[in-house]
Design brief:
single chain, 377 residues, alpha+beta, Immunoglobulin-like, Glutaredoxin, 3 domains, 5-stranded mixed sheet, 4-stranded mixed sheet, 11 helices, 15 strands, 43% helix
Length: 377
């Protein structure tokens, strides 16, 4: 009796241990590569975790230990292509392919991974079709009518992909595969869903995942991106009837200062970072210019692109910057950078008394010459 109980206990223990492991096997055919790799994607980083040689008939196998019960993203890499898998502990997954891995693979034993295949089935084909159209457009000697026709084909393909992507996300909003679909992008785009109103899809998925996978490590990232999108949408909604995007940020004392509150003055909207030596030199030159023109209707509205309030305030005080200094402490994630399409620091925009942007990235003598004219108008 005791021996029987011991066997049962060992069996339970073995089952509980194996429930955290994942086995992946299958057959990869049609390409010359003899090695297949396994990657794990976590926290925005991709890490190679294993590799095996294919058998003579194309068979292979992996086993991963200590896998969470919330699906995590892995890639099978074969012949330079990646097959995405969303795996959780206890799954026994079979992945086969003949020819191009990403276009022709099959997967069984993992529901989330099967959903990824469904998504990739239309998405990869759509992106490939768009690439063919663009190649034709750029490589051929076409008439204007032919070019318009090609662009119409491209737009049609784009809309088909987006419509299918949206359908997939809504139908599977409580699955991790929906998060994967949210972040897939088309050529020359930041994200497929990059319009401000598309935030509704991010919220829908986040709320559903909160119910189905509350412990998912993807959820905090999703919530952070939603907060960033909401902040950007809020700022854009505040744009007034002037010739520039208007916004409001707090100064070092916590008082909100709106850019348009300086209407009627010549304003230099300046973006800088205390951590950049070059911007500190630019500030030194700007102080001399400011001293000359400040009493003639010139003002500087300077946005500190910082994440540390202490560093920002200390630098402003140490340099004795005499103008308006504001910041939202979001660093490079500040929505105002996107509003003005700022790609590098320092950057500035010169706004005349009528609210029109008349120059960009002007410094030193060039700035002085412009101010000589503008402050007299």
């Amino acid at each position: 009796m005791k021996k029987t109980l011991l066997i049962i206990a060992l069996g339970v223990l073995m089952c509980s241990c194996s429930s955290n492991s994942v086995k992946i096997s299958g057959r990869l055919l049609g390409l010359g590569s003899q090695v297949v790799y396994l990657e794990k994607v976590s926290g925005g980083e991709t890490k190679l975790i294993d590799s095996v040689s294919l058998a003579s008939n194309g068979d292979y196998g992996f086993e991963i230990g200590d896998v969470a019960q919330t699906p995590m993203l892995y890639n099978i890499v074969y012949s330079g292509e990646r097959i995405p898998l969303l795996l959780k502990g206890g799954e026994r997954v079979t992945v086969n392919t003949v020819g191009s891995p990403l276009r022709n693979y099959t997967v069984e034993g993992s529901k989330e991974s099967e959903l990824l295949r469904e998504f990739n089935n239309f998405y990869v084909k759509g992106v490939a079709n768009m690439a063919v159209i663009l190649e034709k457009y750029s490589g051929g000697n076409f008439s204007e009518l032919d070019k318009r026709t090609l662009m119409q084909e491209y737009t049609h393909e784009y809309r088909m992909v987006k419509r299918e992507q949206l359908r997939f996300i809504i139908e599977h909003k409580d699955k991790i595969a929906a998060i994967y679909a949210l972040y897939q992008r088309l050529p020359n785009e930041k994200f497929l869903f990059s319009n401000r109103d598309d935030i509704i899809y991010f919220r829908t998925v986040a709320d559903a995942i909160e119910e189905s996978y509350p412990e998912s490590p993807f959820l905090p990232t999703l919530r952070t991106d939603i907060a960033r999108m909401e902040a950007h949408k809020s700022l854009v909604s505040q744009i007034k009837e002037v010739g520039y995007p208007d916004f409001e940020l707090p100064d070092m004392y916590g008082e909100d200062v709106r850019l348009s509150s300086l209407a009627g003055k010549v304003v230099l909207l300046s973006f800088w970072s205390a951590s950049s030596g070059r911007t500190n030199n630019v500030n030194a030159d700007l102080k001399e210019i400011y001293e000359r023109f400040a009493d003639r209707g010139f003002e500087v509205y300077q946005v500190g692109i910082e994440s540390s309030k202490a560093v920002w305030i200390n630098t402003v005080q140490e340099q004795k910057l005499p103008w308006i200094s504001v910041g939202d402490l979001r660093g490079e994630n500040s929505p105002v950078l996107g509003m003005y399409n700022v790609k590098s620091l320092p950057a500035n925009f010169l706004i005349d008394r009528d609210g029109n942007i008349v120059a960009k990235n002007v410094y030193g003598k060039d700035l002085e010459l412009l101010l000589d004219k503008l402050v007299l108008l």
